[in-house]
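Practice problem: predict the structure.
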Amino acid sequence: MKYTQSFPAFNNCFQDTKSVFRHLSNEELELIPQEQAPDFYKRGEIIYSEGSRINGFYYVMKGIIKIYKTGFDGKEQIIRFAQAGDIMGFRSTISNELACTTSRAIEDSYICFVPGDIVKQFVKINGNFAMELLQIACKELGEANDYITDIAQKTVRERLAEVLIHLKMEFGLDNENFLQISLTREELANIVGTATESVIRLLSEFKQDKHIEIHGRRIKILNEKVLLKISNLPY
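Answer:
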């Protein structure tokens, strides 16, 4: 369920200089309906569901969204996360297909929506906008290929170390040097692609070996060099 709330700091959803919308002219931006405030989603609420027809972009103004597929056994497989400045649902919009993933807020979030017909108009008339969409799609495809390789060739221990490194790189650290993103053990397992029990055991091992520090769901990386070595990442 979505809620519309007044949020004065976000009067214009699309002025972020880091987003794909930076390529649009003022005249093009005026084509986007902006008469209502961003939609507010509480932690745990679904923005769109797999198999639904969404017909538009979702632009994250604030918050973190997990994007996942659901297996035949009901288990989630987290594909990626979206945070401020990211877009969701664009592939289904451009291809006229049903949504192939579900997106759910993992913290309170503000989301703007751009109708599909307007998105397609921008693709046709603005080459820089279309090129960045293509680059985003290629990046996501590359990440999917890397994940397939990891599942096939890396151990669960290696994949968990890699996930912790990537979470630090993608979301950064808070003022106490804990990962900025807070995930449940189940969510970590759904990224790694393993059972929750395995992640709990490996986190305990990493903690005992002083590679990480854990306070509830908060994780601090103490020895990044060792985790890099365990993960077999190339950097």
